[in-house]
Specification:
Layout lengths: L11 E4 L5 H14 L1 E2 L5 E5 H6 L9 H16 L6 E10 L5 E4 L12 E6 L7 E3 L2 E3 L6 E2 L6 E5 L6 E3 L2 E4 L1 E9 L6 H12 L7 H4 L11 E2 L11 E2 H8 L3 E3 L19 E4 L2 E3 L6 H18 L11 E3 L2 H14 L3 H7 L10 H39 L3
Antiparallel strand pairs: 1-10, 2-3, 3-4, 4-13, 5-11, 6-10, 6-13, 7-12, 8-9, 8-11, 14-15, 16-17, 17-18, 18-19
Length: about 400
């Protein structure tokens, strides 16, 4: 890991290979299987509170050691040991058309609590996306080309005014954290309360607690320039599945002239080309998590550890294909836009048998993380209590 020296007038630090490739890939999986529409046009985001609210609290576990390492590095770099709390943690991706002009991260009255920023790049400029270069207005380095695993740490005030060029293709993905000296903005205190409300009372029913519960549909609707008109654009869950080569099939009879906003909460199946996969998923978010898990794990190894028989699928009938087309006409209105926003994974290896195994692997992975969060929560709560007493929060 190579560190670049900080300038006194523009305190900042560049860390190369701060995150491993495996850490970056796991966070990419979480984001692409859980994200919603972000705070700016052509931006998608995944927050820790959102993961809890959608029954995916166990996916917080991969963040925790990274957050700790970043916080320690910020405190060490800026000489503020034991002074900081984490104010916000989020996965943020920028698709084609996203950009931001010159600004500091504390440039609004409601952001004045932000003292330090840490941005970790989860993929690479020139390989995974084009455009999206990061620029500081003053000081050195002036320009940063994001590379997977690198991190940029800087003060959130006007000494580090910065901008990001427009992304011209692909999806630029970062893990972004802000830190504050103001303990009233401690993200952990809020997360603990949410976890206690949403995780502990479900802990006796582990299988159900692992199944995601989607947020409201409008949080997933993408349209150019964040237009509210749902006559254009697409649901990003179906959009990401489309980019992976899947369509969504509902077996029940539907009146396509009525409001079908609740449809994506219902059980469904996935289709790929002319085949309907046998497995029934609880909802579209469940199918997306499994599909993204497969392309995270299976695309790398082209096989899972489980020994499986050939996966089950049937050839789509004409009526089933017509239903899929009708669903797409409602939730996937602009497939060209989907293909512009999300990179296709069709080039990746796909095998029906290993996809069937991925469902079991996803359940094992989720169960392992679920157990870890149940074990971590008491320690997290105890640490928070000690912190609160020490600093008289």
């Amino acid at each position: 890991m190579a560190d670049m020296e900080m300038e006194e007038d523009h305190p900042r630090l560049i860390l190369h290979n701060f995150l491993t490739e495996d850490e970056c890939k796991e966070l990419e999986f979480i984001h692409k299987s859980c994200s919603t529409i972000g705070y700016r046009p052509n931006v998608f985001s995944t927050t820790l509170s959102h993961l809890i609210a959608t029954n995916s609290a166990h996916l917080i576990i991969p963040f925790l050691p990274i957050r700790d390492r970043l916080k320690e590095k910020v405190e060490e770099t800026f000489g503020c040991e034991y002074e900081l709390v984490t104010e916000f943690t989020g996965l943020i991706s920028w698709s084609r058309g996203a950009s931001i002009g010159w600004h500091s991260d504390d440039n609004r009255p409601y952001l004045k609590q932000r003292d330090f920023t840490a941005v970790c790049y989860l993929n690479s400029y020139g390989k995974d996306f084009e455009g999206g270069l990061f620029h500081f207005q003053d000081g050195e380095p002036k320009t940063i080309a994001p590379m997977v695993g690198d991190a940029v740490i800087y003060t959130s005030d006007g000494r580090n005014t910065h901008s990001v060029d427009e992304v011209t293709s692909g999806e630029r993905l970062t893990l972004t954290l802000w830190f504050s000296r103001d303990s009233s903005h401690d993200e952990d205190a809020k997360l603990i309360l949410l976890l206690e409300e949403n995780v502990l009372h479900k802990s006796n029913n582990v299988p159900w607690s692992l199944l995601p519960l989607p947020a409201s549909d409008n949080m997933y609707w993408f349209s150019p320039h964040q237009a509210s008109n749902q006559d254009i654009g697409f649901d990003i869950r179906l959009g990401r599945l489309h980019a992976l080569g899947f369509d969504v099939y509902y077996s029940r009879e539907m009146n396509f002239g009525s409001d079908l906003s609740e449809l994506l909460m219902e059980p469904m199946q996935l289709a790929r080309r002319d085949q309907l996969l046998d497995h029934k998923f609880v909802n579209v978010l469940h199918s997306l998590q499994v599909a993204q898990f497969y392309f995270w794990k299976g695309c790398k190894s082209q096989a899972f550890t489980n020994e499986v028989q050939s996966g089950k699928a049937v050839r789509l009938s004409r009526s089933q294909s017509e239903k899929i087309t009708q669903v797409n006409s409602i939730f996937l209105k602009d497939t060209k836009l989907v293909e512009t926003v999300f990179q296709s994974a069709d080039r990746c290896y796909f095998n029906l048998a290993t996809f069937s195994a991925a469902i079991t692997e996803w359940e094992d992975y989720s169960c392992k993380l679920h157990k870890e969060i149940l074990l971590s929560l008491p320690q997290w709560r105890a640490h928070q209590a000690i912190y609160s007493v020490k600093f008289d929060v």
